[in-house]
Amino acid sequence: MINIQVEDNNGARQDLEVPVDMGLSLMEMLKAYEYDIQATCGGMGLCATCHIAVLEGGDGLPELNDNELATLDTLPDAEMNSRLACQLRCNDQMDGLVIRLKALQEA
Fold it and tell me: Where is each 2Fe-2S ferredoxin-type domain found (predicted)?
C-alpha cells in the first residue's frame, strides 16, 4: 500500500490508501474512491477527463508517452506538471504523490 493525497480546489487534501499489487491505473483508483471522472475513452488517454496536476512527488513517475503528450497538447489549461491519470499505473514510486484533479476544476 502507498499513500496519495488529492487536493481540492480549496487546498484541502484527502489521504488515499492505494494498493500497488492490483495493477490499477491512477484513474481507476480515483474512480474507486468515487471521484467524478468520466473516463469516456476507457483509459486510452484520449478524452482527458482524468487530467491531473502533479503538485508533489512526481519525480518517480514515468515519462509521458506520445499519446499522453498529444492529448495534453489539446488542453488549454495543461501545464508542465499535467498528466493523464489513466496513463499512470499505481506503484511504489508514487508513495507520497500529491495531485489535483484538473478536469473537475470547472465543475
Answer: 1-105
